[in-house]
Structure formats: C-alpha cells, structure tokens
Amino acid sequence: MKWKKVLPPIILLLTLLAFLAFIFLPIHKVFSFTEYRANHPKIYYVRMKNEQEFQIRYVHSIFLTDVIESYKVTNQNAIQLLSMQYENVGIGLPGYAEEGQTLSVKDGLYTLTFLDTIIQSFVLFVGDVDADLAFRYEGLETDLKKHLIRGKSYTFSVQRLSFYQLMKGVKING
User: Which branch of life, at top level (predicted)?
Assistant: First the structure.
C-alpha cells in the first residue's frame, strides 16, 4: 500500500499505457511469411533493418540453375520488383520482355528488369525437393527450407507487427 502513496495514480496509469502500447502497437517492421490457407496461420518473419532491398534465390526445378529475384521495399511497405536473373529461358523464365520490362543478355546471363511493378504481396511455395530456396538480406542468406515447412505455401509481405505478434510468430535467422 505504501507504493500508492509514492506513485500518484496518474503515473501508474501512464506507465501501464506505455507498457501496453509497447506490447500491442505494430511498430516492428518485418518481412513476413504467413501460412497460406491455414485456419490459424503462423507467421514466420525476418526483422527489417535499414536496407530496403532483398533477394529470393532458388534453383529452377527443370534447368537446375540459380534464379535470383531482386526486390525493394517502398515507403508504403509495398514490394517493388526490380529484376530477375537466370541462365536459361523456358518454363517461368521468359525469353522476351513485356510492356514495362526490359531484357538483356550478357555472358549467358539473362536479366529481366521491371520498370515500375509494385505489388503488396506474393505467394511462395516451398517445394518438397532438395533444391535451394533462400532469402538474402543485408549480406546474409537464409535457407528457407530449414525454417518453413516443405509442401506449404506462404504469403510473403512487408508488414508491421506488435511485440505480442512477434512473440507468437517464428523468427527466421537472417
């Protein structure tokens, strides 16, 4: 009862409100992988730091060569497609540019550049094959097949989560 005399009720209330704000306000910016089509979707995440660009690297299932997709986070937390690099053309790897794209070939490496394509999210399927699927950010490459469940799809997006949501989710090393 002595603490009530020391701390006026208004300070106690403000402290409680600040604590609740810290716990429940979505202030932590993350790259999120949210289970797609799940009743209680689990969120896997990588905390975002200063760098706005990131990449997804995977091995093409037919050509067995690396494909590197480069992206940038916009000021509105949307995803801007920057480019896609690959060695072969074919299924999922275009040999020509469409409107709003350019395609260049140098030393056998195709680079498809997107001029102004912005999306809110995309669905990423984690195949049940032993082929690389990695997330690159701030010089680190994280093997997504070690952290996400094979055979499931995930909605990838940039979002702000609360401390409570971070605690319920799964942090991916990266």
Answer: Bacteria
